[in-house]
Design brief:
Layout: E1 7-11, H1 16-27, E2 31-36, H2 40-50, E3 55-59, H3 65-79, E4 84-87, H4 102-130, E5 133-138, H5 142-145, H6 151-171, E6 176-183, H7 196-202, H8 214-225, E7 236-239
Parallel strand pairs: 1-2, 1-4, 2-3, 4-5, 5-6, 6-7
Helix pairs in contact: 1-8, 3-4, 4-6
Length: 245
């Protein structure tokens, strides 16, 4: 098993890519710390426990620094270490520049960008002390190519790439790797809300001719979180069927 006895914290883990990642990591032997703002995380934790996996769920908003620090400390005390952080939590509030409200801007910045900063800053001292860590954050291929009506979202996902490179430089001396993944169109509950006609219009722009599934991204997280990627740091791995060009 590629993550045997590793302790992995996954934010936004109650659905979609986060859920697929929690399931994949558990099958690879990891012990899971699952954070989400949805109570659905309790059901997921119960199911994975019944399947023989070790997992704890905590309802945590990544935007609340005090809550994150307290929950991080509790998780560390419970397991004795935290080896992996998957900064997966994210939201969208799409609107064109001329119509976007400050609340729509602030909400996305708060979760997608500030939340990643808060969680990473909270876990870095733990990983430094144990001289080991894997940090992987969710960017997006729109950070590379842009996307109509997503000023706020694209801003956060572009910033994730920049922060990843900085943190790789700062934390590498402590045997901590820092990377990010840029997913393309992935079938999730969020993207299921898109009109079917809009979904069809994206296919010609994807060389592989199809959308990805959450497991495609979970597999990328798995590689970057594993010791197979021990000499990989500061990169953004694009998983989008060839679309981000």
């Amino acid at each position: 098993m590629r993550l045997k006895n590793k302790i992995a914290l996954i934010t936004g883990g109650a659905n979609g890519i986060g859920l697929a990642t929690a399931e994949r990591f558990a099958k690879e032997g990891a012990k899971i710390i699952l954070w989400d703002v949805s109570d659905q995380g309790n059901e997921i934790a119960d199911r994975l426990k019944m399947e023989g996996h070790e997992i704890i769920f905590k309802k945590v908003s990544v935007t609340n620094q005090d809550d994150v620090q307290k929950s991080m400390t509790e998780a560390h005390e419970h397991f004795g270490r935290i080896d992996i952080l998957i900064n997966n939590a994210g939201i969208t509030r799409d609107r064109t520049l001329l119509k976007m409200t400050m609340k729509e801007w602030d909400d996305v910045i708060s979760v997608n960008l500030t939340g990643v900063f808060i969680c990473t800053q909270a876990i870095a001292p733990i990983m430094k002390e144990q001289n080991y860590g894997r940090i992987v954050s969710a960017s997006s291929n729109v950070a590379i190519r842009g996307n109509f009506g997503q000023t706020n979202y694209v801003a956060t996902k572009s910033a994730i790439i920049g922060m990843t490179k900085v943190w790789a430089m700062e934390l590498g001396r402590y045997n901590i790797t820092v990377n990010c993944i840029a997913p393309g169109f992935i079938t999730t509950a969020m993207t299921d809300l898109m009109p079917e006609e809009v979904r069809k219009q994206t296919i010609p722009h994807i060389p592989l001719g199809k959308w990805g599934v959450p497991d495609d991204i979970a597999n990328g997280y798995l590689y970057l979180a594993s010791d197979e990627a021990s000499f990989v740091s500061g990169i953004c791995l694009t998983i989008d069927g060839g679309a981000a060009r």
